[in-house]
Structure formats: structure tokens, C-alpha cells
Amino acid sequence: MPTAIRWLIYPIVAVLGFAAIAIAMVVVVFSLTYPNLPSLEILTDYRPKIPLRIFTADGYLLGEFGEERRAVVSIHEVPAIMKQAILAAEDERFYQHGGVDTMGVLRALHANLLSGGKRQGASTITQQVAKNFFLSSEKTYTRKFYEALLSLKIEHNLSKDQIFELYINQIFLGQRAYGFAAAAQIYFGKPLTELTLAETAMLAGLPKAPSAYNPVVNPKRARIRQQYVLHRMRELGFISEAQHEAALEQALIIRRDVTGTPIHAEFVTEMARQIAAERFPDDVYTRGLRVYTTIVKDDQDAAHASVRRGVLDYDRRHGYRGAEAYVDLGETKSEQDEALEELLLDFQDAEDLQPAIVLQADTKKIRAYRRGGEVITISGDGLKFAAPMIEDKAPPNKRIRRGAIIRVQADEKNNWRIVQMPEVEAAFLAADPRDGAVRALVGGFDFNRNKFNHVTQAWRQPGSSFKAFIYSAALERGFTPASIINDEPISFPSTVTGSQAWEPKNYDGKYEGPMRMRTALAKSKNMVSIRLLQASGVRFVQDYITRFGFEASRHPPYLTMALGAGSVTPWEMVAAYAVFANGGYRIRPYIVREIQDDKKQVLARAEPVTAGDDHLRAIDPRNAYLMDSMLRDVTIYGTAARASATLKRRDLAGKTGTTNEHVDAWFCGYQQTVVGCSWIGFDQPRNLGKGETGGTAALPTWIAFMAKVLKDVPESFLPAPEGLVTVPDSSSGNGPAEELFYRENAPAALEPEPPLDDSIKPED
Prior knowledge:
By secondary structure, this protein is α+β, with helices and mostly antiparallel strands. Helix content is about 35%, strand content about 15%. The protein is built from 24 helices and 22 strands. Helix 5 packs across helix 7, helix 8 packs across helix 9 and helix 10 runs antiparallel to helix 11.
């Protein structure tokens, strides 16, 4: 054999020999390793960590809790365009290869050899499933080898659609979202079936690098990645050129509040979470529990909007307080400088009250940078609220100038105006008086700013809204709506009060002399309430109010109880007013209807008490009927007359409440199908301001809510119980033409009677 030929053959033989040895080694390693690969039971019996989910009574999602936010879907529920986008972005030959894409491996190997390191991967969807379920994310050849073997095993045991389904549900996509169904809700607030092509491509681009391409954190890079996915889809023939161009032009609306839901019920959601965690503490956030609350979506929306409007209206009545903060704009180079976006990171949106950085300000116009890169102009009416703080003579630490942080809001015509974050807090609760099911609950103005639940945790003085229970006790002691009580000043020496002399006054400082008990309640006369409490006996009344669910210890047996000097929560007040609304039965408000497992099997169900059960009777049905009658007068011609005038109904009942120094404002009231309580005040108690009474500050929220929930509800009234008689009354003024009495103490005719003698002090 010629020497030249030998020099040619020897290298070839050597290469073939080395190749044979390598193949033999691979075969040996494969034969030893493959049988010891982990079981695929975790895939064939897929049980992902499913978060705790909270729903309204009518099936709307309120929130979810868990390390992994996930919504499991079957492959048949995934739209074709979503599958195509994923394939275009991650593994176009998925349905052709056997788990490892040889062409992709060679391409990646070539790129890595040229670059001198392990920089480019060629993972198929199957390999990603293997890695996500069984392996770490370290980039070593050993791990890649095991990944390839596992992929072959997976392909041998599962169908392509089964593998694809696992991938679609398991892959991490940022913002604690696992799976594309969860990501669709988190980023766009939509189910998979409602995503547009542009939105689909955005999600399909996330698996490669969920942090880098997160549209919330890195919108520009996410946009570049989305464009790449759309380009690949067009190249592969999944979409047409026209679809490609339309998708590129679509402006995406990304949900920045990724922890929220379209329904604002954060306080409800937190209450339900706590209840579920107490009942199922071990795996409450991973087993897919479904908690159904009693909340009704439309009612909750109405409550949220009403509270928000009430608080903002109050805030505007008391003027603009000045810039929220100041930032240093010295390093910014232009109005589109990314540094501006970073400066806004410390200032969170409060729904439509959005933070903005003032770039230029004078009395005619303000230019401000808003999150997302938009520079807005505010002028005309949009400046009026903040006008005093734009002038040069405004205090330096409050003046609106370059670098000031302000809040802006779009009005009905999409013109920008300056607003501010309110300091005052508010609460609203509505429930069904027949069984206590809570229909709406708003525990404060903004849950993200203040998580303190004012409905259940805020113990505040109820003021005059507590008078209803003083009057009910007086009826029990023999008084009637026609009883005459003196509305004149009264004073108590220190020997009576046990501390210091007390000279209470009516709210308006006016006194009308002898008047009927019915009229006194409608006009909220303090002197009459004190005299009624004194005559009824403070210890009797202290015990009597426990029938409504109040704690006696929070209402000391002093005459100040007549003015609501004790402590209550809106939750208690709703339960108490429900007694008048349902004819005298004590119900217990509840907020969770039932808890189901991930297969929708009921694990726990509420057992509410229902009005009509004699074991639940709190007060005489005649007492409830008379109180209902008098409380309706409050809304017709009394301190809450605005309610009936606005809503054009005569079946509304309730009572306003304003505490000393205007610290708390209340309105608690009901219609036969719903009882609601509105409160407004500061967390650190202080004066709400001149004229801020229950009728001014709290009642509008109640009216706005009732306007929505009673829109198509016909008027209804309590049926008259046995044992009541009516006596004609031609001298009642604005009151009824006839008065109601218990049969045993009804007069033959209504005649003038002397006012209550202050010296009458029955034994407790």
C-alpha cells in the first residue's frame, strides 16, 4: 500500500475508531442510566400546586393566594393561535422530533464552539418539561444529557398533546404566573380564548426569559420579543401578512396591578382567605380550594363606587393640601428619559388617581410625566382644585413646581385634572336582613394603602345612629311614638355623673320644647334621647341593647349612652339594624357561603340563621314595627330626608349619626331586602370639618349604593303584627295621620299630655 494512501486511511480509521468507542460508551451509559431514570408518575398523574381562589356568590373571581398562580386547562381548551405562537417561539418541529431536535442541537453546538462557551441552548418543549419537573436549571453537559434521556422516556410514554398540555400548564411566565391560562389573566385580565394575536404573541415570548421579557417590568424588551414571535409565525405560515401587520400596530393594555381583579373586593378577599386558612391550615394555598363568598358582583361594584365617590367628594370640599412629594430632576435629559419612570416607582397608582411628575408649571398650564411615558398637559378647569398651590406665594413645601409629585385623573371627557390621595377613611357594609348574607363590603378607601378593615376592626362612637336602640328600649318600658318629651336644655351635676358636671346640647343648639317621641327621633334631638334613657333606666338599656348583638361592656351605663358614646363597628350596626328590618329577629352576618375542593366537592358550608325562627327573636314584633315606622320618618322628613327625596321611595328607614366634635359620621338604614351602614372618619380621630354630619358625609354613599341595588326592586313594608291598634291623630304635623300603639296602652283618642317629668327615674 502506497505511503500516501496509508497516511490518508490511518486518520480515517482513527476517527472511526474513536467514533465507535464514543458510540459504545454512549450505549453503555444509556443502558445503565435509562432504567434508573425517575418515574413519570408525576406527569401521568399531574397534580400541580393550585392556589386558593375566592369567588363572588355569582361566580366571579375576587382573588387568589399561593406561591404559584395557576389555572389548569386541557389542550383542547387552548386556542390554535396560542399553540402556534408557542411553537413558533419555542419549538417549531415539536410534532416532528422524538423529544430531542438533532438539527437544533447541532446548530447550538456550532454556535457554542464558535463563541467558546455554553451560551446557546436547543431545548425542545419536551426537554423543558423534563427540566421543569425533574431537573435543576444549571447549564452543564451532564444535566443536558439527563434532560435528553428523560425527554426520550417522556416521548415514549406520553402523546405529543399530553406533553404540550403539561408544558402549557407548568411553564413559569413571570409575576408568579405558572401556565399560559394564568398569565392571560394576570397580564391582560382575560381568558385564553379572548386573547388577540398581539397579546398571544406577547405571552408566547415569555418562556425564554420571563424576567427580561416581562411586559410589566420591561415593556420595551417585551415588545421586541413579541415582534420576533410574530415574525416567526408569519415565516412558518401560521398567520398572514395582513394579520402580522395588524398585530404589530395593536396597542397592548398591560395590567400593572397584577395582584388585583376587575372587581374591587380586596377586604372581602382577605376575610375569606383568613376563614379558609383557619379551617384548612395545612395546604390551604396549594390544594385548589374554592371559596364562594356571599358577595354579589353588582352590589360590590356599587358599594366600591359609592364609597370612592363619597370620599373624593368629601376631600374636594376641604381643599387641596399641596404636592404629595418632590423628586430631583437634575439628571433627567428629556421628557422621555427612562429615569422619570424609575422616579415614579415609589408612588403606586390608586386606581384612577395616578401619580405624575411635574415637568413645567405655571398658573395657566402644567406639563407632567405619567407612568408609561406619556407627558400630559393640564389646564383650565383641571387646575382649579389645586390653583392656590400653583401660585408663587404658596408654601414652598406644598407648592406645585418642577419635580413635584401630583395625582392626576381623567374626567368624563378624558381631560386631565389634578386630584389628591384623600386622608379620610370610610367603610360600607350591606347585608340581607333576612339571613345575614353580606352582599357588599368595603373596608376602606384603598386596600393597597391601608389594609385595616374599618368594617370589622374599627371601634368608633356611633353618635346619634345609636338612638334607635335607646328608643326601642323606651318602647319596651311603656313609651309610645306619641309620648311627649321635653326638648329643653338639661344639666347634670358631678354628683350624678360621678366625674364632672355635664351640660349636653342639641347639634344645632336649638330647642323646640315638648314634642312627640316620633318627631324627636326624626329630628335627632339629643335632649329627648337623654330624657328617654334616664326614664327607661341606663342599666336596663345597657342590658337591652345586647339583644341586638352589642357588647354591654362597650356601652357603659351612663347617660352619655343616649348620644352614642359607646363603641361599635359597622359590622355590628348592620346586624343591629337588621332586627328592625326583618321584624325583630337577630341574625348574624356572614361572608363565606361554602368552601369546595379542586374537584368542586363541598368541604364546608355556612349554616345561616334565618329571620322567622322564634328562637332568634330579639325584640317584640310590635316594637320592631313601631321602630320601622319611626325610622322611615327619619328618611321622609327628618335628618335623612334626602334619601326618600333622591330615591323616590317611602320604604327606606334609617338614622344619621354624628359624634362630638364631628369626629365620626354615620348613616345606617335599610329597605326590606337590604340593610346597609356607611361610616366616614379619620384613623387618628379628628374633626371632619364644619357641617360634616352623618347626613352630609355618610348618607350620600348609602343613597348612591341603594340607587343601584334597589333600581328594579318594588316598594315593600313590614306586615303589621297582631297587638297593635291605630288611633287617629290630626295634630301630628308631618307625621302620620294616625298613630300606632300597643293594644294594652292605647288611648281612646290622642290628646295633649304633659311632657316627661325629669324627676321620674324608674328603678333599673
